[in-house]
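Entry for the shared binder. Reason: the reviewer on the internal report wants the predicted structure included alongside the sequence.
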Amino acid sequence: MSDNADALDSLWEESGSDNDKMMTASRVVQVRYRFYAVWILLCIFLLFFWFIIPSWDTYKSKKSEIQNAKWRLEALEAREDQYNQSIWFLETVQENDAKIVSCVNYEETCQALPQEVQDKFWLARSYLLTNWMNETKMDVDERKIIENIDRFLVKFEPFLNNSTINWEISKISIWDKIFNDWLYTVPVQVNITFEDKKYLLSFINNVEQYIPEDEDIRVLYKIDKISYDIINSDQPQNTSIYMNLYYYDE
């Protein structure tokens, strides 16, 4: 019996030793797997932090640059189309100068104008009035302004050869030019004694409705203010007219 008991004890000890070895091996494997898992996670984190995030930021930045470039290209194409249309319109206006003047001043040849000019008729008129106003010795060509007033604006019937001046100019003031976008503005004040209201209305129509047939004295004005007593419109009175002159400089 003693021998059997010793044999069982020996087997039990061997079995326990094997179990301890297996448990130890299992722990080692678990620790190793955990180490590998931590190492893999660390590598994934470093890969994500060092490569994926910068690559994603670079991708978004490049995508944004491409989109912005696309928008700029579309805007440039739109501006180019608008520029080409504007150039075509202005060339058409120049080709139909005489017809436009005749239509504005005499209401003739209006139907003979291209449809695009008819649709933008007053823009065409403004373009024909936007004259070159540079002068080598002065900031602006005051001679052209004075001739425009004297030979056109103050004429009661400016398109008749026997048209007469029916009022008296007492003052013409021309201030310094002001640059605004691509246009220059020149404030102008004219003091005139009108005999009655119809001559004032004639002056206003000459400014806002008609075009001088002589290209050299064409000037684009916009009336800002008129100092006039409408109550005494049947009597002569001195009137101050404040206008802005517009022109472009190439």
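Summary line for the report: The first helix runs from residue 2 to 95.
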